[in-house]
Amino acid sequence: MLQLVVRMLLTQLSRSDSMVGERLHGTDGIRGKISTCEQGKNPIENLIFQREFSPELAHIIGLATGYAIFQQFSNSNTNEEPFVAPLIVIGWDRRDGNSSIVNSLVNGLNESGCNTQLVGEVPTPGLHHCLLLLNADAGMMVTASHNPATDSGVKLFDKYGFKSMPELEDLISEYAWGGIKKEIKSKGQILEEYDGLRAYRKHLKEWLDVVSSTLGLEIEQLSYPVCEQGLILDCSGGAATDWLNFGLARRGLLCDEVSSRDVPINYNCGAGEFNSTDSWSYRELIELEQNHALLEEIGNKLRENDGMPPWTNGQLVAAALDGDGDRCLLIEATKDGVKIVDGDQMAFDWLNALRCSSKENLTLAHSIESDLCLPATCESIGIQTIQTAIGDRWLSAAIASKLNSEMQFISDHSMPPVCGCEDSGHLVMPTPHPHLNQKWALVGDGAATLLSQLYARAKLGNQRIELPKGWKVRKSVKETKRSLWNGKNELADEIEDIIKQTLPSAELQRKEINGETSLLLLEGTIEGESLSIGIRNSGTEAKTSLTIKSENTEFMRLEEKLCDKLRESLVLKS
Questions:
Q1: CB 303 within 8 A of CB 213
Q2: Nearest Cα to 123, choosing from 95, 153, 98, 92?
Q3: Within its chain, how far is the Cα of 558 from the centroid?
Q4: For the segment 488-523, what is each residue's pLDDT rounded down to a tens digit?
Q5: Fewest 10 Å CB contacts: which of 142, 157, 240, 479?
Q6: What are phi and psi of 30, to 5 degrees?
Q7: What is the spatial distance between Cα 260 and Cα 310, in angstroms, rounded to a whole number?
Q8: What is the pLDDT of residues 6-36, one digit of tens each?
Q9: Element (H or E) spanning 419, and its range?
């Protein structure tokens, strides 16, 4: 009967030659608008063409993912002990519709022969921790990260806590399109639900001890970088909203949480609403209405103090996590306002704090979106850098390769002196394995990032170095047909011609980045100044993004020309 159900599920998929086998995963998992799939419709086609994520799709993804993991597990299980089915742990964030998606995902995984265990509503790093704690063979987080509450999706982790890589995603996509040929002999079991949030909160307490001992600081120094009035905290209405501020307050850091679980997750709050280069003057914050809870609260603090800032230049004013809690951005006081402290600066501060703690062989992995000044500044103080594709999985892969861990746990008697960053606030840092002594995994964790930053600033004090900033612009052309852009086709050649015509003195070469399948990246110089121009498709949305970076010069005219060309060529006319 089980085999018949599986066959019926898979034969409903229409096998259009142009689509079968297309990878369903984007930069970080699969995402789409929460929907239901009408009878007779193809859930996969709805994902690709309408960007819809339905329980019917979750069932297929669960079946295909479980089958791929089951096959890998069976092939590697060569000992003589009785066979035990692989275990997949599942967590989720707070979105209407996630309940039915989780149920469908579990059903698909169980039908593939895998056992499943629910760990409840947790941040994405909480799911990562539960995976290691429960010795699971994979983990699946039901979330759409910083996307609106109307979206959902799934992120996949392997047994070592690494995000899924293209090879596995291609295999899962092949199975989802109807490529399961072998009989599935038995159904997996659903294990007793585990309190993942409680386990994650305990882990954060232990993380504080790790950071404190690594930098040689006491818990009382946690509040040094913050003014007496405390830190404004924005957990985006996610899993940390009700307890992170209280946990910090118990350790001497006053906090005021501004997001609420009474409104949809990510609604007018959270790190997902900010850009890495954002800044606001005190006049703007006092006089203008803000559509973000954190900025509105900063304005309130100013108005309550008769327009005078209750903090000084360089002090931390606020911190924002995204909905699933895997990234963090800080807001810092300037002389006449506040500004975002991006992932580049945070990673640099952390590694510099390690350097001041006599750590050696420091390494930073950073994405192609990072500021051009970051590598040079790192090298000036002895930090090695590696440029990667966008996505924290590529940061982790670069770090693992550097440490020769072959995408497994890192061995070190103390915290490895490595970090990965995206300017959007994703920091990938080592985290101690809950069972294996002197073994470390890699994870992006917004709350842990915040804690490490508070300590790093306390360690650095007046020795903290402000990263020099080049000029950077990032623009997205929305509602694009992404199949028309792959970074290598005739349109890419036309784009390169426009750049050469606009900047005849520029000396630019195309550069390949492992993991970027749609990227046109031109790097070089113009009149002795570094210049980088990149165009790529979004991994999760129907948009194509342009980034131009230089040391100083602004290239607004080029930006307008390229965006116009992309809009003309990629946006379908109604």
A1: no
A2: 92
A3: 29
A4: 999 999 999 999 999 999 999 999 999 998 999 999
A5: 479
A6: -120, 135
A7: 24
A8: 443 444 433 344 455 688 998 899 999 999 9
A9: strand 418-421
